[in-house]
Design brief:
Length: 193
């Protein structure tokens, strides 16, 4: 009988990208973000607004099909609200800004950390996806914590097990945009060589 490492199988369920993002995290007691005190309510507001926008996309499409003028107006209102929220977040002093190289998928991510985190530990991740600042506060469970070879620190692998559908859709949209950007860059590079 052959044992199957299910954790390795789970890692391959989603497309992965190498990305640069701003990240901050806190250890929490479980997947509930109630005890994830990051300080800034502005960042949490941006995260919630983006999730609400994702949830309302199908309604906006339905409205636009029936009444183009109303649909256009609501899209403009969405953009205005998002602009105000992003401005507030950019002014918040505790919003993470230091870019970090990560491997990201809809199912989780891996990143470098200075401290060791035990597997099964729950984290609240505060993420700013670039280049268009997309802010999310999401729960994640630590799957692995490996020492960095020939260096100091740890490589942390986490799983997004408690994401809402809109949060997962926001991540998927970012990953698809990043993938399309990489494809365009590769095509441009081939045409110039």
């Amino acid at each position: 009988m052959q044992l199957i490492d299910e954790s390795n199988q789970d890692k391959r369920d989603f497309y992965r990208i190498e990305d640069q993002l701003a990240l901050d995290y806190r250890v929490i007691n479980g997947p509930d973000l109630a005890d994830a005190h990051f300080g800034s309510s502005q960042f949490q507001m941006l995260s919630e607004l983006q999730v609400l926008e994702q949830e309302s996309q199908h309604l906006l499409r339905q409205i636009s099909e029936r009444d183009r003028s109303l649909g256009g107006y609501l899209k403009i209102m969405n953009k205005r609200i998002e602009l105000i929220a992003r401005t507030l977040v950019s002014q918040a002093t505790d919003t993470p800004t230091c870019k970090l190289s990560v491997t990201l998928s809809e199912g989780g991510m891996s990143f470098a950390a200075a401290e060791r985190l035990d597997p099964e530990t729950w984290l609240a991740l505060r993420i700013v996806l670039m280049p268009t600042p997309l802010g999310l506060v999401v729960p994640a469970r630590v799957l692995r914590c490996d020492p960095v070879p020939n260096g100091e620190g740890w490589t942390i692998g986490v799983s997004f097990e408690a994401l809402s559908d809109p949060e997962r859709q926001l991540l998927a949209k970012h990953i698809l945009q990043k993938q399309a950007q990489e494809i365009r860059a590769a095509k441009t590079e081939r045409t110039h060589t």
